[in-house]
Amino acid sequence: MAKKGNMLIAQSGGPSMVINQSLIGAVVEAKKHAEIGKILGARHGIQGIMKEDFINLRKESAANLEAVANTPSSALGSIRKKPTAADCTKIFNVLKKNNVQYFFYIGGNDSAETAHIINEEAKAAKYDLRCFHIPKTIDNDLRQNDHTPGFGSAAKFVACAVAGDDLDNRALPGVKIDVIMGRHAGFLTAAAALCRTQPDDGPHLIYLPERPFDEKAFVRDVKAVYKKLGRCVIAVSEGIADKKGVAIAQKFTSEVDSHGNVQLSGSGALGDALAGVIKDKTKISRVRADTFGYLQRSFPGITSEVDAKEAREVGAFAVKTAVKSNTDGSIAIKRKPGKKYSVTYKRVMLRQVARDTRHVPDKFINKAGNNVTQSFIDYALPIVGKLPKIGHFKGVKA
Amino acid sequence: MAKKGNMLIAQSGGPSMVINQSLIGAVVEAKKHAEIGKILGARHGIQGIMKEDFINLRKESAANLEAVANTPSSALGSIRKKPTAADCTKIFNVLKKNNVQYFFYIGGNDSAETAHIINEEAKAAKYDLRCFHIPKTIDNDLRQNDHTPGFGSAAKFVACAVAGDDLDNRALPGVKIDVIMGRHAGFLTAAAALCRTQPDDGPHLIYLPERPFDEKAFVRDVKAVYKKLGRCVIAVSEGIADKKGVAIAQKFTSEVDSHGNVQLSGSGALGDALAGVIKDKTKISRVRADTFGYLQRSFPGITSEVDAKEAREVGAFAVKTAVKSNTDGSIAIKRKPGKKYSVTYKRVMLRQVARDTRHVPDKFINKAGNNVTQSFIDYALPIVGKLPKIGHFKGVKA
Question: Is residue A108 part of a domain?
């Protein structure tokens, strides 16, 4: 039997629609194991740990746990902070003091890195910690994972938003640019294509950070679509960069976080700049840009059911694994081979997931670098689940 | 019995999530009346009429009509165009040539004005036309109406979006500005408040175009909320204007449509400018802005059921009225007195609805002019219908 100790869980990085599913999945699982004493939730990630700002998650009713599970964003609060060596010392002292033997940190690759650092420091200090990273990111950019919890729901939002916007653009034609989240990985932007059914459905052009963004090619692409259809809907990743790797958005902002990331979201600057390029370089009069912003990760009520279920299971699996074997790691989602979609969960090493980004593979991007392939659609649809049906008139000329 | 003739229907102005419900409501009703011969749909409003770009709506299957009814945006295409005298002559010639006796134009107050102009010209030309405006506007700003089809669904989108954004802001605190559609009327921005249940739920500040926007007061308001809660979520109408009536957004754009309206949507400029003001005038480091854009009027799959039902009934009622009595007008939604929400539909004069805007009444706005009252919530909730449940931890300190 595993040793008896307390559990501490926290959330980190950008929220998602299902990160609370992982949290509640872990808490509900923990309650089944006698090895786990207190179940503590730290407010705002490592900041809350350092301040011992904990809530007692055993005091939450089963009904309330379910209500929180079905609510977007990080119910414990989040943080974007890379711990310093001094922070780590503080964290260990708090963990020791509270007899925490089970530590779970839910987040993306920056959060995996944080968990990795804490774990390495724990090892160095010979502190016996079962330290697990639980994956979450709408960017879908964690290595070792077929996909990540949070992506399916954000992808559903983006697919619906662009489908609606495409209908809007059919009604009032022009050029429409939609800027979508994703710093270095274009999976979420690619998801803009998931509602396409008609040959002339938008988005007609999709630009991912995996391909260098060239302004001249962009203008040429837009002109060609506009000439053919009299309109053009474009999905652009906020993270597009030129061939030197400099983010296009960087020209319009200077704010950086403690991981060294430039602020891309929470501003309409990139979309407006791209709209300005089309206005300047073409004779098209109606050019608009929308930046989907934080709605992509926190809109309530349109969660992907598959995503919610997997997020829940990943949280539970982390706790089961931690109790079963004296180890550490991250939990990865693996897709089983075969026609019917199904997944398994697997423990992987923290350092295999930490920091680095998984990119959209070449097979998902068309040759011209301005759209996605059917292979991407086949990959993403099962994760996103049910999408709204779009009706069109047959339109018999009178 | 009414005279036999053909019917022509078209859509105009900004799309909504339920404008197709009104279209299909009218078409399905028309099919019940022997007085109506052909059912023609003009592509892109009066532009399609002038070009005789019609589709035969009798050729659409019942199933397809339903699929279109449940799809956002204007399935016939839309237009923002005020007809000139020459346009009107053209329109009459087309109507005469096609033996159109029943004409329905679905749209907002600009569209009602267009219908009114066409109708007056028809009268002057002694052309016997049953000309009806069918109301649609997410802005909820049509006179004579308790509320308008399209508002309930857009309001539901805004309420959900701000609720999710408020959860996001709880997780990663800072100042968050959400810019919401509504040129002269703030109903849709006011709807940002509809998901609030906890005392500290955002939006904490709401700025409508009905009150002059004062930058100093704005900064003071934000500072006060931030001091109290450590965060602040703000809903701002795209149409906010200074005390001289000059739109704040006008400083950042110069594009106007043929009704003389400045382009407010499809740009993040206002939100970014307001975020800049807070960054400059306070010491708050994390300030973000999102502009909800066209998603508010075209997002599929989250329609208000009440709104969809009423939009459908309004379309049907217009056709019934046109067939029953040789008259013209617009259809208005009236709320019945009493505790339980219910409505009736009433024919009103075109000129009573055309052009001018209905504003948010004083009783819906708080004294400080930076929030809405319970009276607004009571008014709007029945129109918006079911909203997602938000769960929060009880949060017992450990």
Answer: yes
